[in-house]
């Protein structure tokens, strides 16, 4: 499975996005607690406030390793999780329940050709799709 296909798979499953988000918050909280020698509760507070891009500043990393971890997780949440959530919501809003599936289109095409053969009429050539420029 290539990376693009994997991202598409994840982005189309809201439960999986939330699972990845939850695991990443727990992992970040645990790492913060260990690296910064703080409690797990403080780590959770920092991870959630950072993931939601609130950034109160009351709990911050002071070590170089903690700051690097904050940058990595912050970028992951902002450029990974948030766009997948937005894409998932937009996809659900734009999905057309009345759109024909490929199988339905093929069935319609074959059925129409059979009807035309029985009526002994020539079907016109289907239009070709030209992308808008």
What does the model show?
With 133 residues, this protein is mainly alpha-helical. The protein has one domain: Helix Hairpins (Orthogonal Bundle). It is built from five helices and no strands. Helix 2 crosses helix 3. The mean pLDDT is 90.
Key features of this structure:
Helix Hairpins; rod-shaped; 70% helix; mainly alpha; single chain; 133 residues
State the gist of this model.
With 133 residues, this protein is mainly alpha-helical.
Helix content: 55-70%
Based on helices, strands and strand pairing, what is the structural class? mainly alpha
List the uncertain runs: none
Whole-angstrom Rg: 25 Å
Number of domains: 1
Mean of pLDDT:
90
Q: What is the terminal-to-terminal distance?
A: 32 Å
CATH topology: Helix Hairpins
- Indicate the overall shape: rod-shaped
Number of helices: 5
Reported for the largest beta sheet, the result is: none
Chain-wise SSE layout:
Layout: H1 3-11, H2 14-36, H3 40-51, H4 64-94, H5 102-119
Helix pairs in contact: 2-3, 2-4
